[in-house]
Design a protein that fits this description.
Elements lengths: L1 H7 L10 H8 L4 H8 L22 H4 L5 E3 L2 E5 L3 E12 L2 E11 L4 E12 L2 E11 L4 E10 L5 E9 L4 E9 L14 E11 L4 E11 L2 E12 L7 E2 L3 E5 L3 E13 L2 E10 L3 E11 L3 E13 L4 E15 L5 E11 L4 H4 L11 E12 L3 E12 L12 E15 L2 E13 L2 H4 L4 E11 L2 E3 L2 E16 L9 E15 L1 E7 L2 E16 L13 E2 L13 E2 L7 E13 L6 E12 L20 E7 L5 E10 L4 E14 L2 E10 L3 E11 L21 E11 L4 E12 L3 E11 L5 E11 L3 E5 L3 H8 L21
Amino acid sequence: MRGLKKKLRGEVPFPRTPAWLAAALLAGAPAAAWAQDTAAPAAEPGLQLRTSPLLREDIPAAVRGTLPMFVTGDQVSGQTDLQTVIDGNAELRRGDTVIRADRLEYYQPDDMAHARGNVHINRAGNVYDGDRLQLRVEAFEGFFTDVRYRFLNEGHGEATRVDFLDSQHSVVTNGTYTTCLRQEGPSWLPDWIMRAATLRIDREEDVGTAENAVLSFKGIPVLAAPSISFPLSDKRKSGLLPPTLGIDSQSGIEYTQPYYWNIAPNRDATLYGAVMSKRGVQGGAEFRYLEPTFQGEVRADLLPGDRLRERDRWDFAAKHSGYLTGVLPGIVGYGLTINRVSDDNYWRDFPRTSPSVTQRLLPNDFSASWGYGDYFFTSLRMQKWQTLQDVTSPIAPPYDRMPQWHAAYSRMGWGGLDVNVEGDYTDFQGDRAFTQQPNARRSYTLAQVSRPFIAPGWFVTPKMQLHATDYQFDGMLANGQRTATRTVPTLSVDSGLVFERDASYFGRSFVQTLEPRAFYVYTPYRDQSMLPNYDSAANDFNFASVYTENAFGGNDRISDNNLLTLGVTTRLFDPDTGAQAASFGIAQRLRFKDQRVTLPSDPPVSERLSDVLLGASLSWAPQWNFDSTVQYNPKTSRSIRSTIGARYSPGNYRVISAAYRLQRDSSEQIDVGWQWPLNDLWGDRGKDRGPGRGLGGDRWYSVGRLNYSMQDKKLVDTVVGIEYDACCWIGRVVFERLQNTVSSSNTRILFQLEFSGFTRVSLGSNPLSSLKQNIPGYQYLREQVTTPSRFSNYD
């Protein structure tokens, strides 16, 4: 202890009985409590370490009452079991509470401590400094005058008085609060500060409530309210969230006021009301829940009497998933998804509330699944789509599946064989006005058997498949049939070699592989030209699909094949970590006969040699990443499809990504995104304090993403902004223009002022969500990644 060290150095008088020991005895501390500090215990056989309750973040009440009290100081006097007085460098320590002062008096019968002169309290990492203290130590009840305080969340302030109601609650009179770090000098003023007649601190909920409060920024009052609540940690709390004031090219001036309701640790809700100058008043709510066997969320919005569309507007979305036990052996899982909106124009007018990645196709489905052991799995699904049509650009809606039943049985290594059998029954229902083909009930069975032969340097896997399909149509096909069947066998052989050697490139050592691969597939021709197409589409030509048996996804088209795919890949691995530093691959198909099975209106594939597929991936250094895939036509000497992307990220808050995408005769785009500190331009790189903590104060960041169409010679999507980090506050300004259709877009200006550890004030929708969604690798400048510990501010 600090007091004991001073005495041993002879800096203060050393009484016959050590002051710290006498004080412990006078305070009534159990003998065992100090005996363990005076002598090391003798070694015992089988002695094992145990975790101490003193190392817990929250000391249990039952343990706190049994903890010993230690006091130190220059001079200690008193009466046993009654009173202890410490003069000079006085310190009282009990559990997670430390009190220091020039003079400290402790009365044991009522557990009361009186302290005067340079009084300092550290209670579980929260620090108070002032002039005069009266406190019941264990109950932590009392008052403190002329106080300066600092909490674990870096919030601090001053007050004329602090009343401690108990260990979790206190009341601050005439207090201030800010998270700006205090600078040297009497003239220092924080960039932002809140002043309140009364501050109520609730450590149980980690919430502060300010009454008759005024929030000032740069000396200018920006917000006054009779009551303001703010977080003291990242724990959720009920209350009004910061309002949003926005200017939108579609809805006009928009004001939104949300309210957050922390119902329970596993349930919460957000309610809001909005006023849009061009449309009217909107209300909405979101409810989330998480239970041991199920979870989900429900969201709804209502805009009655939209003045622009002259109708009521609404949307509803829900997700629910869970599992059941005891119904069948094993676990039964289930899920429900609902997405509905009021009209076809909803996605265009409210793009930010779209519940689907594909804004005009909203899925609604229910599914249930059951697995038995490691071999059998079955599921039931009912899916229905809401398609939002545009008269200038109509789309064919997908088929509803009402219902779909699927079952699969799989055994690996069964007598050396891999066996898989799956069956499926689907009732397809669609709108004949768009589909131009009858609805149907389709059943199929797919059985496949393979025998892998695998050795360290090679593999060969022959496989046989049999695909049998049956259709029952609601109407007649063009040939007058109401039913159809199809049986298609497939034989394939996948093989490859793996060579390995030590290599060195550019001064680095690697393990290099050379992996030639050959894949042969034969599927006889079966006429499928009269069959409708419910779920098949052509697979993309890439390294994942080039070594597969079917050129189509889905089950309505099985391609006839007699082809050989040849490819080779070489990889470079770090010999110490095994990390892949580079990969290069090439593949091409050799077709021995024309492919006659095609999708409707597509011509047969007659080219004997396919396009060449080229791929490269580089991760030469941790901060660099490069990927590219090119589909090259040797006859025209032109690429048909190309994707080239690179990313450079030398550290936190520094990332630049670029991508070039080409689809010949369709689209050609360049996409660039970034987050970068502008201070780097004048040589001030700051200090990387880790994710969620920024690079230091007084720093500017540029953020953005540009998507440019070279074919149309215009920017398609634009997000450009500036962030300024002043350490205790952050300012953001973001310009956003996103394309809705070929001829229309939505433009917004987003502004946000974030008072670190207190609140955010936004003009327009929250720019953080836009930056995170549009910029690959974007990082928040302030984000709670770890919970503060009382030991991080330990006395």
